[in-house]
Write a structure and sequence with these properties.
By secondary structure, the protein is of the alpha+beta class. Helices cover 16% and strands 45% of the residues. The protein has 1 helix and 4 strands; from the N terminus they run αββββ.
Length: 64
């Protein structure tokens, strides 16, 4: 997250307020545009288990 200049607050905003796309029942992408950033959408790759697990955070994300 530090390398991509993503704060904890931004990550929570992506998870709480972003759009989601599910791969299956437990794996999904949450993504959100931040107009002040110029690197497209921020995306969190998530696994739903006993807790929400953030596998990675990406920028320059594109929805197909």
């Amino acid at each position: 997250m530090a390398e991509r200049d993503v704060s904890d607050t931004m990550l929570i905003e992506v998870i709480d307020e972003g759009e989601t796309r599910y791969r299956d029942e437990t794996h999904l992408w949450a993504f959100k545009e931040f107009p002040e950033r110029h690197d497209n959408l921020l995306c969190a790759v998530l696994v739903l288990d006993d807790a929400v697990i953030v596998k990675t955070v990406m920028h320059h994300f594109s929805v197909l």
